[in-house]
């Protein structure tokens, strides 16, 4: 599987919205069998500015088929628009799926890698 990775955080990129390894603003974007990764270190509880987005989706009607999303805090920024995720894998630690998007997740796994309880979706 092809992987795209980067390691920005909110501190190193002028905010969470700009820390994404990939940012999609186009409508009708489709990705198939690709992993999107932000490999910044996993933050400790209480760390400030450690949000590290793997992908930010701001266009409408994006589709992700068989894709993986890997990061720590704020992995998947479902910013706005309508999106479809099928057979995907989303892994993070804190609030790892967030935003104002209206998305459908079908046969998609959300996996927390934290050993203590934190919100998964914000």
Mean pLDDT: 89
Spans of at least 5 consecutive residues with low confidence: none
Reading the helices and strands in chain order gives: EEEEEEEEEEEEE
Total count of domains: 1
What structural class do helix, strand and pairing data support?
mainly beta
Helix percent reads: under 10%
In whole angstroms, the N-to-C terminal distance is 28 Å
Q: What is the correct CATH architecture?
A: 3 Solenoid
| Outline type | globular
Number of extended strands? 13
The total of helices stands at 0
- Oligomer designation: single chain
Strand order of the largest sheet: 1-4-7-10-13
For this structure, what is the CATH class? Mainly Beta
| Cα Rg | 13 Å
The CATH homologous superfamily is named: Single-stranded right-handed beta-helix, Pectin lyase-like
CATH topology: Pectate Lyase C-like
Strand content: 35-45%
Largest sheet: 5 strands, parallel
Could you characterize the architecture of this molecule?
This protein is 0% helix and 40% strand. It is mainly beta and 122 residues long. The chain has a single domain, classed as Pectate Lyase C-like (3 Solenoid). Strands 1-4-7-10-13 form a 5-stranded parallel beta sheet, with no helix packed on it. A 4-stranded parallel beta sheet has the order 2-5-8-11, with no helix packed on it. Pathway: Glycan metabolism; pectin degradation; 2-dehydro-3-deoxy-D-gluconate from pectin: step 1/5. This is pectinesterase. Residues 2-111 form the Pectinesterase catalytic domain. Its EC number is 3.1.1.11.
